[in-house]
Amino acid sequence: MIEMAAGVVQETASPKRPALSGWLSTLTKPTHVTGVVIVGVVVFCAIFADLISPHDPILADPHQRYLALFSPGHVLGTDELGRDVLSR
Fold first, then answer.
1. What is the pLDDT of residues 18-58, one digit of tens each?
2. Alpha-carbon distances of 22 from 27, 35, 37, rounded to whole Å
3. Distance CA 79, CA 88 (A)
4. Cβ within 8 Å of residue 11, ≥6 positions away
5. Could you report the per-residue pLDDT of 2-20, keeping only the tens digit for each?
6. Please, which residues have CB within 8 angstroms of residue 55's CB and are 6 or more apart in sequence?
7. Which of 26, 25, 22 is nearest to 35 (CA)?
8. pTM of the entire predicted model
């Protein structure tokens, strides 16, 4: 802010928000927040992969072919070879 008093120009400091430090400053922009959330989801899935997909993705069970969605033990059902769709 600039003030004029008796023909002399003086600059006064405008009130500023205290600067955020480090990682917190990245959370002020929506695109950065979106990126942090996406990376967080990928890291979560990597850590808990065995809990998210409990079945072997390659193991074929012909007796469990074409199970429907939300079947017991197979949330997304199975494919034509009896493989769990969620695990694949």
1. 555 666 777 788 998 999 999 999 999 999 988 888 888 88
2. 10, 16, 17
3. 10
4. 1, 2, 3
5. 555 566 666 665 555 555 5
6. 73, 74, 83, 84, 86, 87
7. 26
8. 0.55
pLDDT of 80 reads 92
Percent helix, strand, coil in the chain, to 5, is 35, 15, 55
User: Is 84 within 8 Å of 74 (Cβ atoms)?
Assistant: yes
CA dist 23 → 73, 75, 78 (Å): 41, 38, 43
The candidate with the shortest Cα–Cα distance to 74, out of 84, 82, 64, is 84
Q: How many C-beta neighbours within 10 Å does residue 55 have? A: 16
